[in-house]
Amino acid sequence: MKKIYIFLLVLLTGITSCQKASINGDLDGMWQLMKIEYKDQTSKSPDQLYYCVQLHMVQLQGSAMCRGTFSRSGDSLRVIIRNHKAADVSAYGMNDTIQNFFIEKLSSEKMILNSSFARLSFRKF
């Protein structure tokens, strides 16, 4: 019986130790892109486009899937999508594969990113 308890303890310890803790606070998670407001005063509401953020990685999911990295410093966010072209990320409100954003709002439910190209509104999915 003692061996069963030890086995269960080791099993539970192994399962919980594989989880990665959030290092980005409210930024981590899956964000649905709700609205893109371009600097030329036009806007659109995309259908099922997502930014998935975890650790130092970002994945853009939707019509095309793009993976990259990001860095955050205070209210600044820099997204870098490698091995893709600007046309691949344009649907996601980016005009280049390297985009600098100002974090206008970030909570557990809502995020607004602002760049020289567009203002992006997200909801936590």
TrEMBL record:
Q: Which residues form the Lipocalin-like domain?
A: 16-125
Secretion signal, residue range per the UniProt entry: 1-21
Phylogenetic classification of the source organism: Bacteria, Pseudomonadati, Bacteroidota, Bacteroidia, Bacteroidales
Question: Which Gene3D superfamilies would you find in this protein's record?
Answer: 2.40.128.280
Look up keyword Signal and say if it applies: yes
* Organism the protein comes from: Bacteroides luti
For this protein, the record's PROSITE patterns field holds:
PROKAR_LIPOPROTEIN
Protein's name according to its UniProt entry:
Lipocalin-like domain-containing protein
Q: Which UniProt keywords apply?
A: Signal
